[in-house]
């Protein structure tokens, strides 16, 4: 395979050019209804196409939630394929939110589905779960490096249940979440301007100064908007790593559809607030 530009390099350039904003593509039934769309393939396709057409020229990253497409079976996956292709063709990076995690050949198959350039679902990056042990992600790490893609590993998530696992303390005195961050720092060692292996760290978690978030890689930060966090919270949560934060906003932007102008205005407003907060 010919050399490709690593995801971290492409993400840094996109964040610098467009602002550090990731917009979710989350076509759940309630949101489709609020747009006046039916909860069917036609509604799914109209929703996804509208989001991409409205925002592809102004956001750094789209994050489609695979589950909302998969619930329609093969026809829904076909819409997801087109959504990914259209977004990437328009110049927006695509982070597939599928949270895959398994072992051996099964993990390799998951990786191939989303990180192999020959796959119709090939995305710039993929969310993965390390809770079968970080080493279980090796097939995804290797394929991401080969294809120039990235990974976002669940580390300190915003859901309250996550603390049960992520804040658990190992025999060496380090929490599971901190262990995942340390693994990612190793993956990104020496990368410039930023590594391709990121962590998912909730923007709603408050003071995280006890964790070393300086992993030389991106930090996907869900929780802005509907979950209660604001752009102004980011410096206090992420400290000196705030420059590598990719805040994710889904409902806060999507609720303004299907009006294209309203979607664009909402996205621009969040991007401006985030820039101001993080000094981008």
Layout of secondary structure:
Blueprint: H1 7-18, E1 22-25, H2 29-34, H3 41-55, E2 61-64, H4 66-70, H5 74-89, E3 93-100, H6 104-115, E4 125-128, H7 138-147, E5 150-156, H8 163-166, H9 176-187, E6 197-201, E7 219-221, H10 234-238, E8 245-249, H11 251-254, H12 260-278
Helix pairs in contact: 3-5, 3-12, 6-7
Catalytic activity: orotidine 5'-phosphate + H(+) = UMP + CO2
Organism: Streptomyces lavendulae subsp. lavendulae
GO molecular function: orotidine-5'-phosphate decarboxylase activity
Can you describe this structure in just a few lines?
The protein has twelve helices and eight strands.
Number of domain modules: 1
The pLDDT mean sits at 96
What is the straight-line distance between the termini? 34 Å
User: How large is the share of residues in beta strands?
Assistant: 5-15%
CATH topology tier name: TIM Barrel
Which structural class best describes the helix and strand composition? alpha/beta
Unreliable spans are none
- Provide the gyration radius in Å: 18 Å
Regarding CATH, which class?
Answer: Alpha Beta
Shape: globular
Largest sheet: 8 strands, parallel, barrel
CATH superfamily placement: Aldolase class I
Instruction: Count every beta strand, where a strand is a DSSP E run of 2 or more residues.
Output: 8
Q: Largest beta sheet: what is the strand line-up?
A: 1-2-3-4-5-6-7-8
Instruction: Note the total helix count.
Output: 12
State the share of residues found in helices, binned by percent: 40-55%
Reading the helices and strands in chain order gives: HEHHEHHEHEHEHHEEHEHH
CATH architecture designation = Alpha-Beta Barrel
